[in-house]
Amino acid sequence: MNVTVKPLKWHGEPEWCFADTPVGHYTVSRRQNPACYRVESHGRDRMQTFDAPSPEAAKETAQADYERRILACLSAAIAPPRI
């Protein structure tokens, strides 16, 4: 079985954008000091931050975190058919 996670749908401008997901909310914003793009991941009970050198790298970081969360919820076990 091959499973893929859909890409995040980003809204906003390159300097500040966001994506809403079933597992939380991601934002990407430009920071001045140090000059970088900050990814904030707001989940049910926690917030994580990651820094990246560009908006594209920040979005890739958010996508990787999102995929990790989604895939952690799945199991490779195949269920027997229901009768």
Characterise the protein shown here:
The chain has one helix and five strands, in the order βββββα. By secondary structure, it is an alpha+beta fold. It has one domain. It has a five-stranded antiparallel sheet, with helices on one face. The longest helix has 18 residues. The chain is elongated and about 60 Å long. The protein starts with 10 loop residues before the first strand and ends in an 11-residue tail after the last helix.
Pick out the low-confidence regions.
none
**Beta-strand share of residues:** 35-45%
List how many beta strands DSSP finds. 5
What is the H/E string?
EEEEEH
Can you count the helices? 1
Morphology: elongated
Tell me the major beta sheet: 5 strands, antiparallel
Widest beta sheet: strand line-up? 1-2-3-4-5
Oligomer status: single chain
Radius of gyration: 16 Å
* Fraction in helix: 10-25%
Q: Determine the mean pLDDT.
A: 87
Number of domains: 1
Structural class: alpha+beta
Give the end-to-end Cα distance, rounded to a whole number of Å.
22 Å
Task: Summarize it.
The chain has one helix spanning 55-72; strands at 11-13, 16-21, 24-31, 36-42, 47-52. A 5-stranded antiparallel sheet has the order 1-2-3-4-5, covered by helices on one side. 22% of the residues lie in helices and 36% in strands.
List its traits.
83 residues, alpha+beta, 5-stranded antiparallel sheet, 1 helix, 5 strands
Helices and strands, with pairings:
Blueprint: E1 11-13, E2 16-21, E3 24-31, E4 36-42, E5 47-52, H1 55-72
Antiparallel strand pairs: 1-2, 2-3, 3-4, 4-5
